[in-house]
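Follow-up to my earlier ticket, as requested here are the two runs.
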Amino acid sequence: MFSFPAYRTSLKSHLVHWRAPVLAASALVSALAALAAGAAPAQAALISTSACNEAPLSQPFARWGDASSYELVAGGDFEGALDGWTLSGGAQRVAGSEPYGATGAVGAYSLELPQGASAESPFTCVDAAYPTFRFFARNLGLLSTVVVQVVYKTPLGTVSLPLGAAALSADWQPTLPMLTGSVVTGLISGGTAQVALRFTALSGHSLIDDVFVDPRMK
């Protein structure tokens, strides 16, 4: 039988384990911000705010009032080979897709994340303005939670920063827009940043599908 107090205690214990990485990542981002502040005057005239690849753009979330143009993360529809994706903890492609056809057609597959499983996308290029990302998700159990991290390539190495938990429902729904925070790394690399997205099932059993990134300044 489900017990909310027990669930709350379990979730709290999970979040305690995330607290140290969050603080460490925040310290690293602060260091990068200081580095960016020093580099910004020299880079200001060189910063690019145009898309930094030739990926096709669409408006997959227009029906939800989001008119922004997004690009599909490589393999982010989970319909073909998951080249460049890193899966662990039982994450796997399964039959069943979000029903809205956000990529132009309803697919046949999505990515399953059992509790504790993780999936990381390939790196993609975004600019240093206000790029966001969104994806579709649903839970397969009561109070399922997926934690989202952004992974950056920086002059100091790879840095991952937890952004928070995505709210899921029992039906397929798009998540709210989430910021990639690429402005810091972008300022010290000519206006663009290489980012990957990492999804971890903190509790319960979840599905994700059609991962999109908004790569450019409005």
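Run two:
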Amino acid sequence: MTQELFAILNHDKTVAFDPSLNTGDTGIRVDDTPDELTGEVRTHLLESARLKEEIAEHQVGLIVAAARLIAKALQSGGKVLLCGNGGSAADCQHMAAEFVSRLRRDFARPGLPAIALTTDTSFLTAFSNDCGFEGAFERQVQTLGQPGDVLIGISTSGNSANVVRAMEAAVKIGMTTIALTGCGGYLVDIAQMTIPVPHINTLYIQEAHLAIEHILCSLVEQYLFGRRSGEAEPTGTD
């Protein structure tokens, strides 16, 4: 069955499958991988690393400032709402989970209120079916958002209509608005603060977003609960 599946996917042209070989559970001989595939792996990893180096060079101040805004809102009794689509929706859920749970197992602290607006399938399907998907996040912001809360909108294009509308609603309410984007888009002009990733490829933007999201969670924890042993205190200006 596995050999048939490999044939269907044309993988038999690029990897060898033989359960009798002493290659572990997979039966795949890694040394037979064509050069173009190993080259693709190296190219992707190196470009992803290069992009993170560029962010480290130019965007550190924005990331620290965004973390301070989130920490101040939480310290004042606010909460964090997050919205995005596709991979960015997964990022919202990932980030909300780390706020409510914890980022690191060895750093115990109280939960921080954060809600991913991407998880309520009953609401999302009902509202989208009746009223259209473009207003699904906006409606939740209007219902759940309060002045002093934070909305984090994640969009690799910066133009996702439902995220844009959610941001506009948050601004009207008096929420702090933070956007994670690619090279630009409408969110840059709407959000109070934007952390742009200077790339046009969605894959690389999303990989960089995940690193930024982890850093934001880490800095917020430190602002609210103190430095972890061996880590530098976050710095930045209001």
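The only thing I checked on run two: The chain has a mean pLDDT of 88. Let me know what else you need.
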